[in-house]
């Protein structure tokens, strides 16, 4: 079992999920816990060595927090579980076009999954005040911190000056 019992109340808040799932602070912001790492390893050209075939995590953000712009060498599938919709902000690796994907139970376009392609810069946020988003992320080839790069504000602004507002909002000094 990956989690402890949740409180027997109608409303489950972010703190309850953090405790129940045993989440820890993530270096890019929010909270996480790895829940799966494939035993199978694969040769991953361009990754500098072998990697797990796949990994999965729980990931939670509270309003007021954000996942800072970062990129990885693998595709990442986001899955929505609970709370408010989550915004995933993406700058494409080719052409540098920005787009915002919303996952969650929204009335406009409900989507419970979103894919961020390998090499794209991306960040995440919860747009509703006093809320949280609980999601999962599946990565193949599996996530490895050697393949993770946090965006530096100055470098991203030099590359994508047209996205100044979103870069400044979702990077740290």
TrEMBL record:
This is Putative enolase. Residues 16-150 form the DUF985 domain. Gene3D superfamilies: Jelly Rolls (2.60.120.10). PANTHER family: DUF985 DOMAIN-CONTAINING PROTEIN, RMLC-LIKE JELLY ROLL FOLD PROTEIN. It comes from Nitrososphaera viennensis EN76. The lineage of its organism: Archaea, Nitrososphaerota, Nitrososphaeria, Nitrososphaerales, Nitrososphaeraceae. It holds the Pfam family Cupin_5. CDD domains: cupin_YML079wp.
């Amino acid at each position: 079992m990956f989690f402890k019992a949740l409180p027997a109340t109608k409303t489950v808040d972010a703190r309850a999920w953090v405790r129940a799932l045993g989440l820890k602070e993530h270096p890019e912001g929010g909270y996480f816990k790895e829940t799966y790492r494939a035993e199978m390893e694969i040769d991953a050209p361009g990754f500098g060595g072998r990697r797990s075939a796949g990994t999965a995590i729980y990931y939670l953000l509270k309003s007021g927090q954000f996942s800072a712009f970062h990129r990885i060498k693998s595709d990442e599938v986001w899955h929505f579980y609970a709370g408010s919709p989550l915004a995933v902000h993406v700058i494409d690796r080719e052409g540098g076009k920005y787009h915002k994907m919303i996952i969650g139970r929204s009335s406009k376009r409900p989507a419970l999954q979103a894919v961020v392609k390998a090499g794209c810069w991306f960040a995440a946020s919860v747009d509703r005040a006093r809320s949280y988003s609980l999601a999962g992320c599946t990565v193949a080839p599996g996530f490895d911190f050697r393949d993770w790069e946090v965006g530096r504000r100055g470098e991203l602004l030099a590359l994508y000056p047209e996205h100044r507002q979103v870069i400044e909002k979702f990077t740290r000094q």
